[in-house]
Design brief:
Number of strands: 13
Number of helices: 2
Distance between the termini: 42 Å
Order of helices and strands: HEEHEEEEEEEEEEE
Structural class: alpha+beta
Radius of gyration: 20 Å
Helix content: 10-25%
Length: 256
């Protein structure tokens, strides 16, 4: 009788354990992303240099070792690189208003940079747009947070940078041969004071290096290549928002 009760209780506990494990995995991955951003900021300050932190989402249906990776849903990669000379790597392009030449310059092939971290790859996670016309930050609760502009929302199509880089470092961003494994089009720059910005000519033609109030990365779990998409409510569910303050570069994580 005792054995039968143990078997029944064990069978009931397995689905619950799996659900908890899945939730814990997502939570861990959210804090892994936040930790990479902290690492980029800390390196910039400690080494008095400019650091680029790239984030990209690719298809979860492909093996993570394949090259090149295919754009899609379900797997997120992050990498951090730093200016070798400690100077702003694109300053000459900025001065002449020719950031469009980034991809064909030495910067676009990584010649002015060195790697700071190994590539980080996270499975079953998706960049979700939590700041659009149908999904805005709530005014109260755990997810209450500032709104961000489209170009500072790294989870939508507008959140792209002019200072893209490829991985492995040293491969070209545009018209590459051979193809890089990853191309990081969503890039946050941290300067020696720790300020965070997204360098983009689409952001504002006159001041592409403006320090924004906030930058946001929205995240949710995925199953292979399937993700739920923007939630109808941000008060419940498996979602997270990481906001980076422009002036300080510090980040804060929001969960329902």
């Amino acid at each position: 009788m005792v054995v039968a009760v143990i078997v029944i209780m064990t069978s009931l506990s397995i689905p619950a354990f799996n659900a908890i494990r899945g939730g814990t995995d997502f939570t861990s991955e959210v804090y892994d992303v936040a930790g990479m951003l902290d690492q980029a900021r800390s390196y910039a300050i400690a080494n008095d240099t400019y650091v680029l932190a790239g984030i990209a989402e690719v298809s979860g249906a492909q093996d993570s070792s394949a090259s090149p990776q295919v754009a899609g849903t379900g797997r997120i990669a992050m990498a951090i690189i730093a200016s070798k000379a400690g100077t702003r790597p694109y300053q000459s392009l900025l001065n002449t208003g020719s950031l469009a030449n980034w991809g064909t310059s030495g910067y676009g092939i990584g010649g002015a940079f060195q790697t700071v971290t190994n590539l980080m790859v996270l499975q079953n996670i998706h960049l979700v747009d939590l700041q659009n016309s149908t999904s805005l930050p709530p005014q109260s609760g755990n997810m209450a947070r500032p709104a961000v502009g489209a170009y500072y929302n790294l989870s939508n199509t507008n959140g792209t940078s002019s200072t893209q880089f490829a991985w492995p470092l040293g491969t070209k961003v545009f018209n590459p041969n051979p193809q890089p494994q990853y191309t990081f089009a969503k890039v946050i720059e941290f300067d020696p004071q720790g300020c965070a910005r997204i360098i983009s000519t689409s952001n504002t033609a006159s001041y592409p290096d403006t320090v924004p109030q906030f930058i946001e990365i929205g995240l949710q779990p995925a199953h292979g290549t399937i993700a739920a998409g923007p939630p109808s409510s941000q008060s419940t569910g498996q979602i997270a928002a990481i906001q980076i303050t422009g002036v300080s570069g510090a980040n804060q994580t929001y969960r329902p």
